[in-house]
Amino acid sequence: MSGNPPTSTIYPCGRIARRDFIHQIGGGFLGLALGGLWAEAGEIKEVALGPHHVAKAKSVIFLFMCGGVSHIDTFDPKDNKWAGKFIDAVGFGDNQAAMKRPVIPCLRTFTRHGKSGIPVSDWFPHVGGVIDEIAVVRSMWCHEGNHFPAVIETQTGHRGRAFDHPAFGSWVSYALGSANKNLPTFVNLGRPSSPIQLTGGYLGASAAATPFQAGETPIPHLHPPRGGSAAERERQMQVLQTMSQEFRERYAVNSDIQARAQAYELAARMQVSAPEVVDFSYEPDHVKALYGIDEKETEEFGKQLLLARRLAEKGVRFIQICHAGGGNGAWDSHGDMKTHGPLCRATDKPIAGLIRDLKQRGMLEETLVVWTSEFGRTPWSQNTTGRDHNPKGYSSWMAGGGIKGGVIHGGTDEVGYKAVDSPHYCSDLHATILHQLGLNHHKMEIQTLGRTMRLIEDGSPIRSILA
Amino acid sequence: MIRRNPYQTMIGILCVLYFISVGEAALPKPKKKTGTEVWWSLKPVVRPDVPDGPETNPIDRFIHAEIKNRGLKAVGAADRLSLLRRVHLDLIGIPPSPAEQEAFLADDPAEAYEKVVDRLLADEQHAVRYARHWLDVLRYADEDERMTAAPGIYLWRDWVINALHDDVPYDQFVQLQLTGRRAHERTQMSATGVRSRKEPRPGDQFALGFLARGTGENPQDLAISAVDTVSTAFMGMTVGCAKCHDHLMDPILQKDFYAMKALFDPLVLRKITLASAAELIASGKAMAEAEKKRAPLEKAVNDFAAHYRTKLYEERVLMLPPEAQAVIRKPEKQRSVEEQKIADDYFPILRIDGDKLTESMPEAARRRYQELQRQLSDQGGAQNGRGPVIPVFHTVEVDRLREQEKSYILTSGDPLRPELDREVKPGWPFAKEEPDFRDGRIEAFADWLTSPENPLFARVAVNRLWQWHFGEGLLKSASDFGEFGGLPSHPALLDWLAAEFVQGGFSMKQLHRLMVTSEAYQRASEAGETFAESQRIDPGNTTLWHFRLQRLAAEPVWDSMHAAAGGLDLKVGGPSFSPEGGGGNRRRTESGIEVNPGAKRRGAYLIRGYSPSREVTPDFLQAFDVDDGRAPCPVRPQTVTAPQALFLMNSPEVDKACGALASRLQKESAGDLPSAVELAYRMTLARPPSGTEKTNALTYLENDAARLKELSWLLFNLDEFIYVR
Q: Which CATH code is given to the segment(s) A48-222+267-465?
């Protein structure tokens, strides 16, 4: 790879001199589009770092369930022989002392689905229906046992915030650049648990996620304020060109001034392209029904997933959907596992619909769908019918994008506490995704603060689930 | 398992990574230091001779020598109005008004510019602008994760602004923020020969917000943050690298980091209430009053719940293993230490939360209980029955007990892993001899740091001032004067400025004046065809053969817009404001942060900070490259992005400003469109329009004054509006 700025252009606060950075490798959002534009104009030799090898997937749809899904009640069934018994446990958050805790029973029933016969709980019947497309990894783990630290760890690959590490999607943005000059590379849908999930960190604002929302204004300030006329704005944009001309000619040698002209062009193009993407009026009813858009419970998440598919179609590389975010995340069922129920119902049909829709369009092969949380939940409770945080063992799954369908990989111990069979640190999930995108994580690095920063320090793709 | 906060964890992780995973390949190889070669920035400042030349300002002699040396041709002076706008935006961050433009042009050209410079430097708004520069370097934030000192932290900002306005000498400016005292005001002697600490001057305590800002979850965070910030901000040395290992490039050992940390180890946070005696007494009375009213209601609530609480508790206890039950049933005083540990472990299981309690009640009882609770909450006024919120500030002070404790090197910077066989004594790198701690540890360090003989102190400061005026420092890496930072573009000029700074008694205003009255500062930014050769030889403009075109930072963009719209609030001091709501966050109200979407206070007062769970720093600031203040930021990037364009095109702020500017134009031009156009250019770009520009604008207006709003939009969206030429 190339493209590391020389040390003299590194700002001591840990940011990269972004202009140089954009010049050399292109960036995200505007940077990216600019990179693209300049590349078209022959100004940038190499727009992106990758791919390093043949890619299996073009886009990633990353489904992040905020708050911690119970693997025990969804994709990692355990018999209830320990229920009611006290076992050795470790607290979380502020109390990490060794202690004893009562295992609570799992009230779900599991059905073996598809040809693979993978058991899925009655909370995810629709996902069960597409289980033959899915590889379930039952042996994920991370260090952090509280929400924010764990979100930071599983999303940036690093613990703590001293070095402003970028979110995972920003690395993809940075490495691959855009396939569509009218749209950002890394888009976020839904409310995240933490702003960290959107940050470009030391890769700069240009690699950061652009929050999109379904509705009239998918991007902040996308449209002129109410009352303005579109025709007038069009005219203004033209007059602006004329009025800027003299200044731009005088400072033609300054690349920032050229970049500004292009920033306005991109902003204008997005005013057209972004609403097009969120306009579902041409989607047939049966497709909307597939995502559950016709039912109240599944409507919101269904719309987000349909939008995700449309963004993937347009070449957006990394589409992150945060479900039930804000604060600790609604999946944080300490009080009663029953609170998982509505969340499962809200997401089950849309997720299965997304996979079916991608499949019927022939897009599944090149679209990697990933489902995960910051951690799982413990076999025990504190004093309730809910479960605590469990970073020592949890399930994630992937589908499409060159992943083997209908397989289970790894496992937790007999109560569902620790990953014991082929344990995978959260970085392995990142490495797998990068690998499918044609990226070698060893080649993705950046010099800042006089040291080499990487997404993955120690990890490798989960090879046994690759097709 | 050991409990760690993220900060310690990151230190641990990073350093582990540093050595294990990242390994040596990722790091530049430490240079074998050959003999006694001393890095340039550590050599004493020897005042260089000013080169010969016709220029009156010595800065220009140095600059010209280099320009001549490189065979370059420098461009001429900027036109007068460009220069006026440049110096206004630089020194106070607000563009000149049409009246100020008139007055400047009408004045004698031989003196007019220097008069403007003097006027601006004397303006309080200058202090607001330059305080913002310093606060970037000193990691000011209104909020940060577990930042106990957040309420009242703005008083530190107010202190910085006042200090700059009064031109407090730089050495005292630093002394005060480290010790809370001026160097000559530490001790006093009584008539009987007893030495004691002198009371600091009133108001100086707010300087210590600088150290209080560093508090976090762990008591050691304050000291760690102090070393990181003090060493980069005032010494230009990345001592923080030595947290885990000896510095790879610079002569800083791991023990130097911990020696510096030991200077700050005895400090603890102290909360000060900012109220008069009468207010405190009144507040205490209000609290007693509220408690008195609440007491019977509280009793009713508790009595009603007691039965259900006991029942629930009994059920929970019965769930436990028999040996645990036995422990729990013992009165607390009779439990052994081991038994108490068991009881504590089961505390979360036995704890009865409000929702579980109500769940256990039958419907009618629940309703009755909720009614009682409502009556109680209706009573209180303030939460938990306390009186009105008393404003506070957090300062730091030496804790005499902590001062007795030894300091150790920490494995990977983790406060929970002291290396007990590696004790460190307080000190600092480059200390020549055994420090004299009789006045206090930090005092001794501050004396060494701010002494005229310290080669780093003045060099680092003058380079920052240069960067803020010229857009780039003579040494680009303003906070790293070590080997990673490289060499300055004009070493002799840097040293001359440093020497001049010391000689002038560390007056920052004198130095500002010297810099902005140089020819180099007054050059045009634009280089035509005739300078193609200079452009070819020095395209990066390191020799300053022309002035550097700069994108305005976020705050001057904000201020320029509101100044043109005519509503910029020039009030100095007070808490930050948030233009984007804030969800009624209680912490914010306690911090005094004003949530006001319509506020037009100066951009320097926009809230900034970090929270793991929500955005604190407004979108506008983020789009224009402002950091959240978690780490010192010596240089802001100047990006050019589509979100910036969208903000200027479509945000409600800009829309409102367009409307306000349009009505201002209409009023002040009395409906005469050619003069409205003239004014519009003067208010936004601080210059009259050219002939073509005027024609274009009038054509666009179509003789319709209602279109002035659309014209205002065009002007706010010109490149020139957010660039300093």
A: 3.40.720.10
